[in-house]
Amino acid sequence: MLIEAPELSSFPTVRHAFFTRRGGESGGIYSSLNGGLGSSDHPARVKRNRALMAERLGVSPDHLVSLHQIHSAEVVHVQAPWPGEERPRADAMVTDRPGLALAIATADCGPVLFADHHAGVIGAAHAGWKGALGGVLDATVDLMEELGASREDIVAVLGPTIGRNSYEVGPEFVERFLAEDSMNARHFRPSERDGHALFDLPRYVGQRLEATGIGEFALTDLCTYSDEERFFSYRRSVHRGEPDYGRLISAIALTR
């Protein structure tokens, strides 16, 4: 049902999980632990799935908080659950309040969980290519620091993400990254299709995080596209012509 990172599991005041698609109540293309509030799955099933996740993290269902993700660099400071069905339009969250689980939804993009357990500050970010390029990871670390975290004490872990052998992109995509920094060429290698390339999103996320000066970066090194048994994948659903796709949830919470 879930994957834990040893880099975060060792912290006594932090709970986290990179949930897989297993162990839920949804069916069909959403089988079975679909946590996507924006999916076309039956809302009651999604709600029950998220309640299972909240239980595993030791919080009440309404304290598993999510965002309306927009592939931006926007980060919000979470102090309490959102009222009603409200969700801020942003792609990362930071909190120093125990009992809140920060939940990121992905289906190929990179879910990054952050913790400075000494300061009692955690974060969670949705890092697709656009958000990572736009600075969402940098902004998350900045806000954690504003809440009292020390960069050198922050540990960040990248969960299941589309891997470098599965992420084929066109020339305009490559050009956008090279225009930002010519050194980004190291994150691409030729694909079998002429004029196309394979993009290493996990490596790019890692490079951006290491550049912030945080204490440690780790990754699960699991590919959402190639491991259908455990993970949902937006790109796989597109290649198959499916009408929708499930969302994986990655979440982190302070216990005290």
Keywords, separated by commas or semicolons:
alpha+beta; about 260 residues; CNF1/YfiH-like putative cysteine hydrolases; 14 strands
Overview of this structure, please?
The protein is α+β, with helices and mostly antiparallel strands and 256 residues long. It has a single domain (2-157, 226-254), classed as CNF1/YfiH-like putative cysteine hydrolases, CATH 3.60.140. It is 25% helix and 23% strand. The protein is built from 7 helices and 14 strands. The protein has helices at residues 6-9, 43-57, 129-134, 136-146, 171-180, 201-211, 234-240, and strands spanning 2-3, 14-19, 64-65, 75-77, 92-95, 101-106, 110-116, 121-127, 155-158, 168-169, 188-190, 197-199, 216-219, 248-254. The strands form 3 sheets. A 6-stranded mixed sheet has the order 4-5-8-7-9-13. The longest helix is centred in the N-terminal third of the chain and has 15 residues, at 43-57. The chain is globular and about 50 Å long. The mean pLDDT is 97.
